[in-house]
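User: Teach me something about this protein's shape.
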Amino acid sequence: MKFGEIVSWREQPTTLADVMGSWTAYVLQMAADMRKYPSEVVGDFGYDDYIGALFARNHLRRAMDELSVTRLDIEWHFAETADEYFRSLTRDDPGGAVIESEPLFAEYQQDKSYWWLRRIPREGALGYEIARVARARAGLAY
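Assistant: First, the predicted structure itself:
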């Protein structure tokens, strides 16, 4: 198993399990916020938290690539479980609201394998906030 293997994350050595745990924790926090604030305008898990979650997923991708994690590895299945839950909480973002609104994601605009950067929350306060912030950063009224 590769869970205990050391990878670089945020300029610090850590384990694949830690990076995977960060992504999973973000997904669970997002789900809890969407349940707690299904129709409100403001929730506890906001735009910056969502962007942090996407960065965590980017790091997980890099860590899995660094350790050559494939579908044959148990770690791939753990990541896939969190990814599927994330997909169930989000929808496709055909307009690229998030990836366009965050300059640090510019390098991934052409790489469709970073699919999580092209998803937005389905509903709740988080969905509203993501749409509002993305529109504002694009110079559009909301």
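Now, about its shape. Helices lie at 16-36, 47-66, 74-89, 97-101, 124-137. Strands lie at 6-9, 12-15, 90-92, 119-121. If you'd like, I can walk through any region in more detail.
User: That's plenty for now, thanks!
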